[in-house]
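Inverse folding, one chain.
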C-alpha cells in the first residue's frame, strides 16, 4: 500500500472546536515535557557528567574542578539540565502535536512541501549541537585554560563555577544548533516567494560578511570557534543555493508539462476543426 498524503480537511469546525483541539494538543505537549523532565531529573547526574566531559578532558590529568559560590546554585543547575534535556527528548512529541494541529488545514501539495522541512529541522539542529560538543568545545576550553599559569609571582588558576559552565555549554549548543537551521529558513523564504536564488547569489559577499559577524557574536571570543562555525554556515548557504536551483528547475519542468497538457486538447480541437468538411 503506497503512502498517501490526504488533502485539506473539508469539514468546517466551529472556532470553539479548534480552540478545544489546540488546548488538547498543548496539554499533550506539556505532559510529554513534564514526563521527560521527570525522567531526566532522575538521571541528571550522568547527563551533567556527559556535559562536563569536554572540560574534564581539557584539564590535565588529576586537575580541574567545578565550584559553586551560592548555596542553591547546584540545585538550580540540575533543574536547568533536566529541563534542557527533557525538552530535547520530548521535542518529537511536541512537533508531532503541532503538525497534527496544523496539517488538517493544508492541501496535499502543501503537506508534501513542509514535510522535508520538519524532517530537516531536528537533523540540522542535532548536527550543529554535535559539532559544538565534539569539536568546538574541546578546542575552546583548551584555548581558555591556556591563559592559566603564573603572573607577577601569583598563580592564576581556572576555577569555573557550575552555573557559568552550564551557561557556556548551552550557549555553544544552542548557537550552533540554531545557526545550522539556516538552510531551512532560506528554503522557506524561497518557497514563499520572499527571496529568489538570484537575489541571494547577488548578495553572496554580504552574506559572507554577515556569517562571519554572526559567528563572532554567538561564539566565545576565540578565533577557532568562530572559524569552525563560519565555514559550515557558508557551506550550508551554498548548499541552499544548489537546492533552490534544483527546486526552480523542477518547478519550471512541472509548469512546462502543465502548459503542454493544457495546450494539447486545444491543438487537437483545432486540427479536428480544420479537417472537418463544412456542412452543406
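Residues assigned per position:
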Amino acid at each position: 500500500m503506497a503512502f498517501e498524503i490526504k488533502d485539506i480537511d473539508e469539514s468546517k469546525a466551529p472556532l470553539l472546536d479548534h480552540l478545544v483541539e489546540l488546548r488538547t494538543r498543548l496539554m499533550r505537549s506539556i505532559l510529554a515535557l513534564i514526563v521527560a523532565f521527570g525522567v531526566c531529573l532522575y538521571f541528571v547526574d550522568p547527563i551533567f557528567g556527559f556535559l562536563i566531559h569536554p572540560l574534564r578532558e581539557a584539564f590535565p590529568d588529576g586537575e580541574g574542578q567545578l565550584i559553586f559560590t551560592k548555596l542553591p546554585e547546584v540545585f538550580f543547575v540540575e533543574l536547568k539540565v533536566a529541563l534542557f534535556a527533557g525538552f530535547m527528548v520530548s521535542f518529537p512529541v511536541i512537533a508531532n502535536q503541532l503538525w497534527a494541529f496544523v496539517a488538517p488545514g493544508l492541501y496535499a501539495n502543501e503537506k508534501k512541501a513542509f514535510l522535508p522541512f520538519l524532517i530537516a529541522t531536528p537533523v540540522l539542529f542535532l548536527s550543529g549541537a554535535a559539532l559544538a560538543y565534539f569539536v568546538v568545545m574541546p578546542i575552546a576550553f583548551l584555548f581558555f585554560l591556556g591563559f592559566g599559569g603564573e603572573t607577577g609571582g601569583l598563580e592564576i588558576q581556572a576555577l569555573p563555577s557550575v552555573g557559568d559552565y552550564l551557561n557556556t555549554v548551552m550557549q555553544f549548543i544552542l548557537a550552533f544548533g540554531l545557526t545550522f537551521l539556516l538552510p531551512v529558513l532560506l528554503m522557506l523564504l524561497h518557497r514563499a516567494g520572499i527571496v529568489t536564488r538570484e537575489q541571494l547569489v547577488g548578495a553572496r559577499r554580504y552574506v559572507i560578511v554577515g556569517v562571519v559577524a554572526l559567528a563572532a557574536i554567538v561564539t566565545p571570543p576565540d578565533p577557532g570557534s568562530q572559524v569552525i562555525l563560519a565555514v559550515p554556515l557558508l557551506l550550508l548557504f551554498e548548499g541552499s543555493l544548489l537546492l533552490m536551483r534544483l527546486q526552480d528547475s523542477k518547478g519550471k519542468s512541472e509548469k512546462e508539462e502543465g502548459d503542454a497538457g493544457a495546450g494539447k486538447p486545444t491543438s487537437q480541437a483545432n486540427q479536428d476543426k480544420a479537417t472537418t468538411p463544412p456542412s452543406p
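The longest helix spans residues 223-275. Strands lie at 149-151, 154-156.
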